[in-house]
């Protein structure tokens, strides 16, 4: 929505640079009141301001999700900090024994 918030690439730059280089352009009125001016004057086509805001959030979320720089940074963070924790199922406990290729000796498991 024009005139409210900041652009997707500005959000990405704030995130990547870990500083606020770009600031939100706030309006004098709140989001709902500001969105009212974008409601279609035709009652047959008009959507409530709350729906317009929901759609605006979906647009910005989609733009953020497609941003290559943000995707790269999130991927790097995920690779650096993600942890995978698993618990074997009952079937796995019975099927995977010391002769199975996936067997890991509990005394030598890596953390």
In short:
This protein has 111 residues and is mainly α.
* Count of distinct strands: 0
What Rg do the Cα atoms give? 24 Å
Task: State the helix count.
Answer: 5
Task: Flag low-confidence runs.
Answer: none
Q: Main beta sheet, described? A: none
User: What is the mean pLDDT?
Assistant: 86
What do you see in this structure?
This protein is an all-alpha fold. The longest helix has 18 residues, at 49-66. It has 5 helices and no strands. It is elongated. The two termini are 47 Å apart. It has a domain at 8-83.
Question: What's the arrangement of secondary structure elements?
Answer:
Elements: H1 8-17, H2 31-36, H3 49-66, H4 68-81, H5 90-95
Helix pairs in contact: 1-3
What keywords describe this structure?
elongated, 0% strand, 111 residues, mainly alpha
């Amino acid at each position: 929505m024009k005139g409210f918030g900041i652009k997707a690439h500005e959000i990405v730059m704030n995130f990547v640079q870990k500083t606020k280089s770009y600031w939100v352009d706030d309006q004098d009125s709140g989001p709902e009141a500001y969105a009212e001016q974008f409601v279609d004057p035709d009652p047959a086509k008009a959507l409530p301001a709350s729906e317009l805001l929901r759609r605006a959030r979906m647009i910005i979320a989609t733009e953020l999700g497609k941003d290559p720089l943000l995707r790269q940074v999130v991927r790097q963070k995920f690779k650096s900090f993600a942890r995978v924790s698993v618990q074997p199922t009952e079937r796995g406990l019975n099927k995977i024994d010391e002769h199975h290729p996936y067997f890991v000796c509990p005394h030598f498991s890596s953390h």
